[in-house]
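Section 5: illustrative case.
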């Protein structure tokens, strides 16, 4: 589903440091750290702008987990997980 979202948006995450595996690993680490292991993603969209790449994952209840550059994430517009400098 994640790969399809990137492909639809024309974003290449098949090679390099931020490949699809790094996005998926970040998602797993974020949800695992919050005990959200049963989250069911029903929709995924991706976009790229001047701030980088954003992956939006919508769960079965309509909540949004937004991952920015596979570096930090927000859940329903609040900080959820990430690496703060």
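Designed sequence:
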């Amino acid at each position: 589903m994640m790969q399809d979202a990137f492909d639809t948006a024309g974003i290449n995450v098949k090679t390099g440091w931020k490949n699809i595996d790094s996005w998926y690993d970040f998602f797993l680490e974020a949800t695992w750290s919050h005990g959200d292991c049963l989250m069911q993603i029903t929709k995924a969209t991706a976009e790229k702008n001047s701030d980088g790449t954003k992956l939006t994952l919508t769960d079965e209840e309509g909540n949004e987990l937004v991952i920015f550059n596979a570096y930090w994430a927000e859940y329903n517009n609040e900080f959820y997980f990430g690496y703060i400098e």
